[in-house]
Amino acid sequence: MPKTLRIATRQSELALWQAKHVQVRLQTALPEIEVVLLPIRTEGDRIIDRPLSEIGGKGLFLKELEAALAAGEADLAVHSMKDVPAELPPGMALPVVLSPGSPLDAFVANDYDTVEQLPDGAHMGTSSLRRAAMLKNLRPDLRISSLRGNVQTRLAKLDAGEFDAILLACAGLERLGLAARIKSELSPEQSLPAIGQGVLGIEIRADDDETAAHIAALDDEYTHIRIDAERAVNARLEGSCHLPIAAYAVHDGQTLRLRACVGKPDGTVMVRDEISGPTGEAASLGHRLAERLLAAGADKILADLA
Ligand SMILES: NCc1[nH]cc(CCC(=O)O)c1CC(=O)O
Hints:
Blueprint: E1 4-9, H1 13-29, E2 34-39, H2 43-46, H3 60-70, E3 76-80, E4 92-98, E5 105-109, E6 123-125, H4 129-138, E7 143-145, H5 151-159, E8 165-169, H6 170-175, E9 184-185, E10 200-205, H7 209-215, H8 221-237, E11 245-251, E12 255-263, E13 270-278, H9 282-305
Parallel strand pairs: 1-2, 1-3, 6-7, 6-8
Antiparallel strand pairs: 3-10, 4-10, 5-8, 5-9, 11-12, 12-13
Helix pairs in contact: 8-9
The structure holds the ligand NCc1[nH]cc(CCC(=O)O)c1CC(=O)O.
Ligand PBG binds near residues 168 and 197.
GO molecular function: hydroxymethylbilane synthase activity
Subunit structure: Monomer.
Family: Belongs to the HMBS family.
């Protein structure tokens, strides 16, 4: 019997695209191995009527996939890095990241092309505390309401007239074949992306050296450095919940520029800072930037949300 690699995946269209992307990449690299999908239904997919921050935060979407890994039912799980908490559960590792898309937020509307074009007091939908903080900081007049559900559900609510505009990740829309819905990209100055936005991560059991060896070639070095810097910010700042934190790193292979901010979701306070240094020090740059943000008031913003 040929060796099989089993990819645990959520069943949303976005999760399936991501898992299939990794499946194809692995299958191409490893023709002698059979790479299959193991679809799993997770708690985060079942509860769609409450904000994510209320029902257990970011780790929710990963839990059941990690259980399948721990039980030996699956060999790897593919995640949007944005949904991966700062700390992995014991026994898990995330050795490979890849970045098949844009890291930026997308402005999506039917009657407007940019945030600037929105009329005074326009109604926007997002349930991301980060996007709410960015939007209110950019345009204090905007009215923002919670918007959950998968990407298609959110677009349907926009199309039904519940909102004048919504923000989504460009990457998610691209993966679903919905790039035509992107009216404009928000620049990092307008909306600094979430930590790991647009990046896929492959999680495995920490002791599974065989799978680690099979997937190693998929790792993207540029993205890995980016993730090391951004996740170091998260390691210092994040509690258990989904928070209004953004960090975004770019580099040229030598020098890394890391921007980060923590904002109040009502837009009244936004602590921003940035740091540059050698790519080899990505993680320590992230830690240092996080310390500076905390000292400049991020600690108060995060404590008030806890
Ligand atoms: N929060 C859900 C989620 N998780 C990953 C993506 C899209 C892909 C990505 O951002 O990496 C999305 C949709 C969105 O935020 O619009």
